[in-house]
């Protein structure tokens, strides 16, 4: 009657020595580590996306020096009996939990020259916040004044690409890179043997030259970082290879829409409870080219969203045409400015927008030339009231997040 | 004890003959039509954004031939006693209602050569849906199978710009236009006397040459098309001129995030009940450069969102860099494809995504090179079940939306 | 295209002179005032339940001297074409609104010797609060510190009883009365010509001797005072006579579960928008003996319910057996005691529990000998924080509700 | 950094051999098993309320023969440093989880002659349903057609009574019992050595003669069976003895309001994560005589409640005076009748109302002589649509729940 754990991890060991082998690239030829039947309930354990590179301390040096060629370490692939190319694989995320005894996670701002992030022009240095889990809640000694229920979810999940789809990815991304090959941060990351790990050295060596990196979300889903893919959600994934070869990882205790600081979610190791169902020929029957999902019924009820707007005019006053990315960027900067008035440093506020359950929305996308995007902060998660009042904000003593020790931080 | 109506409309009359004069441009020199005190509850009536150009019939010719130089007709400006530049003007939207006896609205797809929209490359022709209001619900003879509670709101609200801010707008938009001045649809729309109306001919003539068009949302708010700005919301608007000069209009019975078909909301005339409060020097105290808002407590509880993803790779397979606009566009196309499998025409589905309370979100914005955006359709509003099941969708007989009569429509 | 109003009222006129006749008793022989078709959208206007006996002032004398033999004035009956005994009549409450220009309501505590209420042993005097409607919100000069969105609904709705059902009601209630015929307040109220009104003097005289009083909810629904029967709800009513003969009234802007002070809701005149559907033979098909309902999708999102418990041991310490009425009574007294610590008088708190959207629940009903009932107060509706904190409550200056002028009130 | 588990259980062992001693009576002299500091996060493991008497099988004999003198087995008491009589002890239920590897629970209907329940006159026989947990969801082979997210909670929690309070309880309950001492089921259960267990034989023997039974909720909270006391809730408990002596147990994976079949919740062993805070002198400061609680932010979003009404007229047609217990009983019977039309047996439906997250409310409690109570069933949890439609219900093949094997069950 006990639920079978098909992928096991040992967080005291390096990624290359996990009880069930892990991988950090997408390739159709990575062997399955387990087989499940449709309808079967099973568990999958996952290490954190960096493979244990980040420590529970007050020094952001590990974030500054992170080796991003290794990410994301994934559990799987899992062979689902009967799944064939063209099917939709419905995966119910029946539960997501931290690993008992390991109730903490981290949020990072990567340095601009090693990873970067959404606002790296404003916040170019590495920073870190450690979060402690108090049951369903997270709080951080690095970002006081806020505590919230986690909308816990896997940031990354998807089926293996076919060889043909893999080649499409590599080709189109190479074309983008070629438009500005020396850009820092890079426009995209091509396949590379460096840092690659596909269960063992032999598989890694065989497929590392064309195995796709895991950072971008793609047609198969992958690193979608959809914060609402939490307990009880169902996802309908396109299947490209026999057995589907489902992989997953990048567990987040919580995340804000957009995961703006790149390592913005509360990253952790965790355990998924899953159940699958096959919809034969579902891709054609429903015209599905990307995953479709239904959120679960237990999302936190945070309704009082103090919401900031942004339009597609950048900091320099330059007008862009319906550029929702710039709109959201400006909305985030507006929210950070507001938080700073209450005593947070900009780095704290930036970390918070990545980690807390903030809502990022596309309000208007057709009113030329300005797209309007919004970011909503749930008032219920703060110890103090963020709404504007006559007399102005009360400034709190909120310290700072973790920085690289020994280096003088900017504000 | 009766609540004062400070702006009255007569929907049987043209925009130029309204009981309280209306205007369709932004300019600091448009005279206020009324004065209110902070804390005072008052009502504002508004005509629809086109000034009555669209009729409740089954012919989309009026949409095809709409005169967009006239939009948006706004009520106001309203002088708020005591408001001064630098303040934040908190406006509570205490209620929004249709005009009794006029319980209908329209959603349009503008023709590509006269207005266009988010998906005009795929849906270049004019189309229309008429919605009937059944109390809090809307349904359409042109889009059967769906009925939903309206998240009723003003699409457009904001304070008058200062002369300086107005010049900033005009300058930056002119620069954008100059990069491709002959584009259809245009990149932006410069000030023009054609179609302008600012209370009367004299004011129009004096200020029409530099008065800003109302389509784009800007720093002051304006046409933000935020669907959650519904009953009970509070908005904190920056104030740029003495008395704030608050204007508003573009009432929507409902809208989907993004309002993708441009005339995508359920457009109508309506009545706002409002209340204001001044936060002295609020712009500096809170670092506010754009409006901030808090949604109200009575939003419809539609939680089962069937959600479609899009990434920043366009229909041709071209890879873009973290372009959330393309991601949302692809998510919308995915949702439309799904709806078509159940019997809707593409035009019906496109109209529906603009009008129904769909959620448009920014899931991931940092996973180079792909931004991930999502659009969520509330399953509760459909007569049939949209979730993927084994065996595939049941095709319903759902007719079509209104097209230009006498012209053979594309599907 | 305009929606037909089938019952019209004029709140400046007495109940006996309404444009469409009203009635205040249940009897199968009251003639229908209008006929509607299934599927037809129509409006029904209603006067307040007392027929205008209560005034918008600061004197509770009208409450003290209210004539309860007249209540409740109802609009209808409405004949629904095709409805027959044994059917279920599905009524959608498409909308509920106050009458324009009349945006206020009242909550009363009846004197113990004229009506009484749930806590009349503790609060035996008449008291009143006037509420002003600010769009979707209500606030009261008599109960400062609180403002909330109305969960607006008809307190009373149902189909006419058959003669046989009417006799059952009269018989069983007479038996109850006979167990303590002189009790004050009475155990139940028998038919009486005094105060009766059934459209006109002739009908009143003919049927007043056995027409049932409207206060109790019964098999047909009637005065259920279900606060969640708000905008967008559907109710399935048993039909007992040809044409259903649907009547309704007792419009509430808001109410707490239990409506504890009897005149506890925010009482008002109002306008219903309705739509019906007939389920032939539905009573037998579904085994329905009482109405069934589905709440609508736009209920206020008040989730932070500070909840007080009560058990079935009364104030004197006497133990009762699973008596949920006593449990709820004790929970209410506990909530009132809490509110008093913040500065409210007991009468204000009692009024507030009847009028605000508080949740009254049956927690445990089997744990002999104590039933556990709870009452939850939404924290979001108060200007100050009601949660217990170290140091104790801050006492606010909250005045008092309206009392009988010239009489020294008890606290 | 690991969270301390202050009470450990071993579900393979009998109640008397648990690693941390358990108890099944309330008495101030039961020694504390652990000490915690205010603000400290800690875990408490609990066995199921019967101490393992019920098995995961298809035979209800264990339910029929259950020894109720043993219930409820509780973990604790826990000494909270600094808590003194008169304080309020705020307990945050930071998390509640099943015991890993033991993902199942049971719901039972006790036989009328051994425990009984809310509807035992209609359903006098023992019955059982076993529930399997699929992550956050529960489903039962004995009640097909339904699956729901658990609103997991401790059914029982509270601080030890003072000797004086204990004597008050015993006295008042004895008085009730004396009114009908031979009633089956009993009106209340007096202290008894039989079945008592207070950590060890010595303590049991010393205090068994006056230690209170755990079934009823009382002033201290105790067996309140409040289904919303789930993850993230806070409860403010009165403190009567030094150190508070907090005990808890009776973990429920889910429960309907009222827990109508007595063993109506989904009973299980489980793990609580808790955190305490002391509000000095809080009982007097807030006038608190019973616990106060605030529900957590992650309750399942089940909003479409098909709601059945009941009034205080019993099955025989007898009229009672504002008796909410009878009203709720009639509402439950109405809901069961509805469910039976879809293919459930009455016993299945009765079990379901105890176990599923149904809402039991007090609608009207003052409309003499009828109280109106309601029970709402969330439509989202059923595989088929429960709403009434033309043509009537579709009957499903839903089998039956577990009965006593070898005995012919009634329907």
TrEMBL record, chains A, B, C, D:
Species this chain originates from: Physocladia obscura
Domain of life: Eukaryota
InterPro entries: FmdA_AmdA (IPR004304), FormamaseFmdA (IPR054833)
Gene3D superfamilies: Acetamidase/Formamidase-like domains
Molecular function via GO: hydrolase activity, acting on carbon-nitrogen (but not peptide) bonds, in linear amides
Any Pfam family the entry gives: FmdA_AmdA
Protein known as: Formamidase
